[in-house]
Design a protein that fits this description.
With 125 residues, the chain is an alpha/beta fold. The protein is built from five helices and seven strands. 32% of the residues lie in helices and 22% in strands.
Length: 125
Amino acid sequence: MKILEKPFCNEEFFEVETLEDIKNSPNNATLVFKYCDSSLELFNFCKNNNIPYAVLTSNVKELIFCANLGAKYIFCDTIKNAKIFQKIADEYLLDSKIVLLIDSFNEIEKIVDFGIDAIKLKGKR
């Protein structure tokens, strides 16, 4: 299980919503979107320009769309979804990593048995 927080990871995450936000983002950042159907073109822009990005998703359709559009990370905020998403990612050998957003590192022991790819603290996108 990867931990996408310092000191375990030096990756910088930057929240975006628009093409202008993308253009104004730090060069080395992984962009973070909240899923909406109107953002599919932005995801495709990121894919075509080799810009790493993550998407906060809430259902399987969103997971499949984002994985097919090259999302580096699929964020989810419930253990239930994380388990479902991870099973799909493993079954279909998706390149996207499933990331469960957690409230504190105290949750690691109850999460580790589910085989989720990574964790990240909520509110620290």
